[in-house]
UniProtKB/TrEMBL annotation:
This is ABC transporter ATP-binding protein. The keyword ATP-binding applies. It is found in: Cell membrane. The chain crosses the membrane at residues 12-38, 50-75, 123-142, 148-165. One of its GO terms (molecular function) is ATP binding. Keywords: ATP-binding, Membrane, Nucleotide-binding, Transmembrane, Transmembrane helix. It comes from Lactobacillus bombicola.
Amino acid sequence: MSLRSLFKINTFRAGLLVIIYLVYSYAGTTSAFLFRYALNSLINKSLSNFIYWCIAEILIAMVSSLLLAYGTYLFNKQIQQYIHAIRDKIIHHHYQNNNTKVAEIQNILNNNMKTLADEYAKPWLIILSSTLMIMMSSGLLLSMNWTLVVAVVITCFIVILLPRLTQKYTAQATRIASQKNAVFLKTVADWFSGLNVLRRYHAINRLQNVLNQSSGKLADANEKKQKALSTADGLNGVGNSIGQVGIILWGGLLFFHHQLDLGGWLVASNFASSIFDELWDVIDSITQIKATKDLRTELHTLTQDTETDTEEDASPVAISVKGLVITYEGHQIRYPDFTIKACDKVLLSGDSGTGKSTLLKAILGKLQPTAGSIEYYDEKEELIIPNYRQIGYVAQDGVLFPDTIANNVTMFQHYPESQLNKVIDSVELTNDLAKFPQGVNTTINLDNLNVSGGQQQKIILARAKLKRQNLLLLDEPTSAIDSKTSAKIIKSLLASDQTIIMIGHNLLPEVQKLFDYRINLSR
Ligand SMILES: Nc1ncnc2c1ncn2[C@@H]1O[C@H](COP(=O)(O)OP(=O)(O)OP(=O)(O)O)[C@@H](O)[C@H]1O
């Protein structure tokens, strides 16, 4: 997150931008400078000269305006390309690291990107354009009377020192506002995902209370951020006013000592005024850029390359659990010791809350043991450090994507049609698909779900079967499917040579018998 990376995203465009802004500021200041000659022509009652200078001024001002419009357009293009590249890296980062909440990702990709564009990238453009304007205006002031430049420099120091008093305060307020915004978005995501349930139980009051509280804190943080920025603005404004009046006074003194004509005095006052306005903009932009420091550091971490996929090896086929303890906020779950060998088909049972799902999550590396260990072995029965992504997993609440049923099964990989149909058949989905006009090419509508709970489970099971990983963990994979169909699906699942650990409730006795053995958890 640096000016250099913003520049480097398209070096040619960035170079062109600098040239455009150089010409724009030169044209802008020259146009303003010509006012001196127009005014002096007026004082000397020379109409033709007056019209000549006015036309010259207008033409140059028009060129300057057109250049500004084009420059702004180009700069926005540069920012969008820059933001796009950062978003891409952040998405990659979150793809590699699965421990971030959706609301946090939303906040980073949306709100934080907007902050980066508005409060980091755009201020750099203001700094470029204002610095050029200050340099051009100072040059023209120098051509009139060097003491004017000295007076401007002295007052500039006052203007520069004042904002330093508020920098830390604004940086902290901006960071807190961003954190509160993340909390607010998470609250909205958490509570609105269960909106239908809240409606069913008439829990509007609870929803309102929670959102009001979070929204109140966000409003408070935004108010404090605005207060900090306004205080900084106010201090900058005080310095600016001192500067402007000082130059008018100094120019007037030069006029009375016949060192400046009337046109020169007016133009000098205007230049001084514009120098202070531009300087104010520069300082304001620097304050904004510095206030985004924490955000940029955070984004910098997120855009660094992280672990890469190591799909090739480390695929476990067997596990051994010893002295395993998992702790949730002081609540401990102790597991018996057991070993699951390659190709074993294991039914994991036990009362509700005994830790079945927790065990699968621990095997998947999503939860770290407080004590004990889970050891993983490969096909050669050698101890390995597993690649957790090589373990197949069907969760209780499997995820579907707003794409076709076929793509939800293949997960966007290419498989022969016959293989896809076979797997669809093995999870008893063929008859369900016959009811959809577009069959396997039906797009799943997540907003208004067009597949039943049982069909969802079948699609997710087909996905796991097609991927065919050596070790497959299934968390009540057929809970929404009738017991007869469920029996057929489980029978087909267990016919593979994979190692399978399946959590199951209320399975028919003949289905239970299909497993090699059962691990029963108790409290
Ligand atoms: N994220 C969590 N934070 C705190 N406690 C949790 C968390 N997840 C589970 N627990 C607790 O751990 C215990 C085991 O939960 P787990 O979901 O593993 O049980 P289970 O045997 O799979 O239950 P069920 O058959 O009802 O699905 C429960 O008491 C549960 O409340």
